[in-house]
């Protein structure tokens, strides 16, 4: 099998390590089988406290984190991992479909969320897309991207606006980068979803919308009336630097 993730893993001198924090043994077993087949090293824990410890001691390249754990909730686990590892991509796994849970996950530092039940193939595609984008951005990435009064530093995953520094998630950085590459042009949601998230346009585009909302709060003078990341109704978004 030659999936999107396997090509990334084979290009690295050391195999990428993924930490799974999930208390459903069957799900962990399925994810382990699929991801090891793609060339990743897998470590796992069924409890949050041990997961935080593994994240600190084993330095994973990506974390898959269940929202509902037996000893502590996933939001708290996410915050602790994010505090010690500001740049590691975190994908939250949740059985809840409520939008506010997803938004809260993004607010505490998750890079993305996948609602159970989900396709393991789609999750592997998302992981592969993350590693491909990380590999490209480690090369000739722009040192900074200016958007109005804000300056984005992609390699540091930071945005500075009016003297205040904001941390940016992986997807926020990639959205800014892609919109900046096409500045002044409408970029369809489906294209953003496919090129950044690694999933095809038939999947939900709410992920894109949620991250645009987060970015506007950091970039715009008034997020409710954006002047730089504008909505092109029925299509997607356009960046006006």
Please characterize this protein's 3D structure.
This protein is α/β, with parallel strands linked by helices. Helix content is 44%, strand content 20%. The protein has nine helices and twelve strands. The chain has helices spanning 4-11, 25-37, 48-58, 74-84, 99-107, 120-137, 170-181, 189-197, 206-219, and strands spanning 17-21, 41-45, 62-66, 90-94, 112-115, 145-147, 150-153, 158-161, 164-167, 187-188, 229-232, 236-239. Strands 2-1-3-4-5 form a five-stranded parallel sheet, with helices on both faces. A four-stranded antiparallel sheet has the order 6-7-8-9, with helices on one face. It has a three-stranded antiparallel sheet with strand order 10-12-11. Helix 1 packs parallel to helix 6 (120-137) and helix 7 crosses helix 9. The longest helix has 18 residues, at 120-137. The radius of gyration is 17 Å and the shape is globular. Residues 1-8 have low confidence and may be disordered.
Please provide the count of β strands: 12
Give me the Rg, rounded. 17 Å
SS strand fraction: 15-25%
Low-confidence segments, ≥5 residues, pLDDT <50?
1-8
Order of helices and strands: HEHEHEHEHEHEEEEHEHHEE
Structural category: alpha/beta
- The portion of residues assigned to helices is 40-55%
The mean pLDDT is 85
- Main beta sheet: strand number and arrangement? 5 strands, parallel
Give, in spatial order, the strands making up the sheet with the most strands. Answer: 2-1-3-4-5
Distance from N terminus to C terminus (CA atoms, Å) equals: 42 Å
């Amino acid at each position: 099998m030659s999936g999107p993730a396997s090509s990334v893993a084979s290009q690295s001198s050391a195999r990428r390590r993924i930490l799974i924090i999930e208390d459903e043994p069957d799900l962990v077993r399925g994810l382990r089988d699929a991801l090891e087949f793609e060339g990743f090293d897998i470590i796992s824990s069924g409890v949050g406290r041990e997961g935080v410890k593994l994240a600190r001691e084993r330095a994973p390249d990506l974390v898959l984190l269940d929202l509902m754990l037996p000893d502590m909730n996933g939001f708290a686990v996410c915050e602790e991992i994010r505090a010690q590892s500001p740049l590691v991509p975190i994908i939250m796994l949740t059985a809840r479909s409520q939008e506010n849970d997803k938004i809260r996950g993004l607010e505490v530092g998750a890079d993305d969320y996948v609602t159970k039940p989900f396709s393991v193939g789609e999750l592997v595609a998302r992981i592969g897309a993350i590693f491909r984008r990380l590999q490209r951005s480690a090369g000739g990435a722009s040192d900074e991207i200016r958007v109005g009064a804000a300056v984005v530093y992609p390699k540091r995953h930071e945005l500075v606006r009016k003297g205040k520094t904001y941390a940016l998630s992986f997807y926020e950085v990639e959205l800014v980068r892609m919109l900046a590459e096409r500045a002044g042009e409408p970029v369809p949601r489906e294209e953003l979803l496919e090129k950044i998230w690694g999933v095809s346009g038939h999947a939900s585009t709410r992920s894109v919308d949620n991250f645009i909302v987060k970015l506007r709060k950091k970039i715009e003078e008034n997020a409710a009336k954006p002047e730089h990341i504008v909505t092109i109704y029925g299509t997607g978004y356009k960046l006006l630097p």
